[in-house]
Amino acid sequence: MRRIGIVIETRDGDVTKNSLGAVSAARGPDHRLFALVADGQADTCAAKLASHGAHTVVDMHFDGDPPAAFDPVRLARGVAAATRGFRLDALVGLSSAAGREVLPRVAALLDAPLVMDCLEIRLADNTARKPLYSGKTVATVRLSGGTIMFGLRPNVYRPSASPVETDRVSFSVPADPDDRLRVLRVREPQSGAADLAEADIIISGGRGMGGPENYRLLEACARALGACVGASRVAVDSGWVPHTLQVGQTGNTVNPRLYIACGISGAVQHLAGMKTSGLIVAINRDPEAPMVKTADYAIIGDLFEIVPLLTRELQRSA
Amino acid sequence: MKIHVCVKHVPDSAATITVMAGGRIDENITFLLNPYDENAVEEAVRIRERLPDTEIVALTVGGEDAACTLRSALAMGADRGILVAGDVFDSRRTARYLAAAIRRDGLPDLVLTGKLSIDAVGCQTMFRLGALLDMPVVNAATALTLEGRRVVAECEAAGGGRLVMETGLPCVAGAAKGLNAPRYPTFPDIVKARKKPVETIAAGELAIDAPAGGVEVLALEPAVQQRRGEVLEGSAREAVKALVQRLREVERVI
Amino acid sequence: MDNEYDAIIIGAGVIGCPIAFELAKKGYRTLSVDKLSDAGMGSTAASCAIVRAHYSTVDGVAMAYEGFKYWLDWENYLENVKDEKGLARYMNTGSILIKSKGHDWRKVKNNYDVVGVPYEEWSVEKINEMVPVYDLHEFWPVRRPEDPRFYDEPTGMLEGAIFCPEGGYMSDPMLSAHNIMRAAEARGSRFVFNAEVVEIRSENRRVTGITLKDGTRFDAPVVVNVAGPHSYKINQMAEGVWEGCNIKTQALRHEVMHCPSPPGYDYYNEGYHTSDGDIGCYYRPEVGNMFLIGSEDPECDPQVWVDPDEFYAGEGGPGRDNQLTESQWKAQCYRVAKRVPTLQVPNQPRGVCDLYDCSDDWIPLYDKSDLGGFYMAIGSSGNQYKNAPVAGAMMAELIDACQKGLDHDKEPLQFKLKYTGRSIDVGFFSRKREINTESSFSVNG
What structural domains does chain C harbor? Predict the structure, then answer.
């Protein structure tokens, strides 16, 4: 019998789809799943967690009031304590922004092996598949030694229903007299271009954009996608966008999971800057354009019609 | 003030990666200083510009080739370097080597490193260092303010926001890209760096308690780059719907 | 589909397109074929597109100065054709030729005097005034960073420089080839892409046409080899051509670096193209306020000759494939960093790696061949981009004259340069020549 903990993330008081995906991923014939929930969210989450296979919903309670902001230090303490308290063999969480703050802290507290950004996990043999070397290779790794920990790449595991009988347990996390680290507050996102080289998703515009004012179409789509906006050399040379947005040999080399090229013909110099992207989508009027020939998916048509439709479809189906 | 900067020797993100037998890659390619570690070195240099009596020591774990990454850190402003000659895949092991080398050199006020390394993307070594050195850890810092012994860090959070955290020296801080704009070395900097001392310590010299188990690479394969080449047909509306469905359900990138 | 033409031009790069254009102006029905998918996508796209006149021979200077006049008058040269991709632009930065031991600048100066190229002699003080960021110590001889002597303190100062106000570069070279293609099309030229030539057909020692990889056959009494780094492969397909050349061509690998300009220095708008033999580099401004840094092939740098097909397929391993190497990144950037002590060199190599179609003496071959009707405009050796429009006009005249009976080998064509008024003996570019010892044997030409 393997005892597996899932570090649950919530948004607006409800368990996220990705966390339900993590629960689904952790299921197995001899697995007992412990969903670790913090700050009184267990009430709203329990039913969904049960229907996806969590045998125990652990309601982690901390002394004092809930924090004003997301507190990864406190959460990590709770998860580590629960891991010990419930004698968990393995922990599954998400390689999300929150997960990257919590899971490594837990791993450090437990001195446990941890693999982040997993594309696939197999608890049966303690292995996972994850990208290595700037996304150009995929490694199969095996973890051993104490509680093993996995951080799943978001969106890779979808929730699947598998209802079980679930019990709810309250777990009191001992207070930590060491308060050397405090979360003061959260600052809201500020405008300003995120670094293209770090972007997971990029939507780029080229000659087909026609002028600087049309980039707001890409910006709207980028917001719907959670993406950064890029450009080809033509757009930069024409003065439509700053050089920091340029993708290509004389601009940025990028390696996002998804690259959407709008009105970009795909000259060698541009391709050199993005051809290792996980997935390439081309939106272009010209079916013979090199970018269309290189892409995974292409839509042949007018980008001024297609991009707004894409933005609306993304918003609609979110 | 004493600052230790932990840096890593990694393949250039633009380098061609060729998978060889035994889960390794062909290392006859450009290796360089991990880009996020550049931000860490730069931050140390900026702190020294404000607090002139500051020593910056760059440390790395790796093979003898890693010495050239130490030279890059020295050229960017570190005063001296320490190379722990050993293997560097498992973060628990790396953190132990670094912590032992740091203790041997004398505990600093601040440990800086990049928020992740672009080859392994483990995102965890700084936290392990903090646990081993008994120091609090702030990570993915886009702003770092030191006021006496008080440290305020703005750290990357979900949705592009920032978590503002407060701690005190000594602490460990992981650098994000937005922390600063690294100033690369000029030729005079490069010439100066050639004379800065680099000490090599064999991993075996450091008395570490080896961790049980770890992370083992069983296999390595190229990420498949065979493009589908599918043109989505139909009206614009239909094609867009099909695209979003593919991206969500099939490719799972959004 | 029409498969018979008056002339077939193999290669739609920056030299192939003007040849098609000029032949079309003479009334030829031309077909251009290129194995890539658009004009200028081969080695043209990687060209530094520098326009400067300092060649080691009088004819070299004359031709380059003539070329400059064409770039300056771009729209008119193109007969005001519209190109949906826009027009390439000539950026006049002026050109500084450092007086160094790496460059026979006295010969260049004489050539300038003969041809009538305007220039100024700049003292070290004058250079300091015009370009305060340059450190004008003499760093000769050129070394590599692996050599500890690379870091020796310099002792003497340079003598100065020769400044040409008329020099700069074209932004961007691929677009310039595309522009010329549109101009040629307006004159009736046809262009076919994704068309790889696998056979050059001939009969009775005269060329009759070409065959493509997909089996398509095109017939013409004139075939011109403008295949860039693949030129030697094309020559070897044509009967008797390769054997009839005393000067051969082969593909030479080259790396060009892009390094950000020092903080506070607007190199893009204020900087000069500089030919710096003292450090074995040339550099010019590039989009993004970068220094584009090319190598003048100093002796200490290895020369890497490659098979162009393997190269473009990314094969051959580090130092032979089409990826930049760290060692050459450091070599070229650190050399310029000596001249520009505020230059900050990033850890990550960035730039372009491509091929020169290099002749045995780094002087091109603009010539007929031993096969009737088969001509070549090859061996550009990294230094002919600037001459492309001139080469187009010269080749068209050569081809037309030969087709009408001129025995060019016996009585070489004299080509009149329309802007500078000088006459060039086209025999200078003969495939039969002995290696020209006056040549600089480098990209300087």
Answer: 7-86+172-248+361-429 (3.50.50.60), 95-165+253-354 (3.30.9.10)
